[in-house]
Amino acid sequence: MYETLSERAGNVVKLAHDVAREYDQEYVGTEHVLLAIVREGTGIGAKVLAARQISESKLRETIDTLVKKSMEETWVFGRLPGTPHFRNVVAAAIDQARQLESKEVCTEHLLLALLHEEGSVAHKALKDLGIKRADIKTDILDHAS
Questions:
Q1: Would 48 disulfide with which of 56, 82, 113, 139, CB 3.0-4.6 Å?
Q2: Cβ distance 104 to 12 under 8 Å?
Q3: How many other CB atoms are there within 10 angstroms of residue 103's CB atom?
Q4: 106 CB-side CA count, 13 A
Q5: Domain spans of the chain?
C-alpha cells in the first residue's frame, strides 16, 4: 500500500536520475532527489520550498558548494566519498506517508525524509538554507487541510 509512489513522486525519481546524469554521477543521491522535487514544481514538497523562497538555482548553488567541499575533504584527508542514503530516504518517506495517513508516497513525504537523513547532501543543503523539519511538517499539514 505505502510502497506505491504517486505519479508525481515517480516523476521526481525519474527527474532525480536526470539530475544525477547532469552531475556526471553514477548514483542517485539525496541531493538529486531534492533538486528533482523543486524542478518538478507541482507537488506539495515543491510548493512548501517555493513558499520559503527556495528556487532550483539557489538550491543548486548550495548543493554545488557542499559537493565541492566534500570533494576537497576527500582529496585532503584521503577519504572516499560516502554513498548517499537514497534507500534510507525511500524507507523514511514510506514511514512519513503512514504517519500522515496517505495512501501513497508523495513529494512531501520525500521532502520530510530528506530532512530526516542527517549527513546527506540534501539534509546539509536544506539546513544551510535555514529549512527546519518541524516548520516544513507544519507547512505540509497546512497544505493538506
A1: 139
A2: no
A3: 10
A4: 19
A5: 7-144
Query: In this structure, which CATH number among 2.170.190.11, 3.40.50.300, 1.10.1780.10, 3.40.50.720 belongs to the domain 7-144?
Result: 1.10.1780.10
Task: Give the 3-state secondary structure of residue 10.
Answer: helix
- State which amino acid sits at residue 39: R
> Span 65-91, mean pLDDT?
60
Of 10, 109, 19, the residue nearest 67 (C-alpha): 19
Instruction: Give the pLDDT band (50/70/90) at residue 70.
Output: low
What confidence tier does 75 reach under pLDDT thresholds 50, 70, 90? very low
Q: Provide the 3-class DSSP secondary structure of residue 28.
A: coil
Cell 572516499 sits at which residue? 80
Q: Which residue has the cell 523543486?
A: 38
Task: Note the pTM of the prediction, 2 decimals.
Answer: 0.77
Question: What DSSP character marks residue 100?
Answer: T
Q: What angle do CA 95, 30, 84 make, to 5 degrees?
A: 100
- Record the cell numbers describing residue 120, joined without a space: 546527506
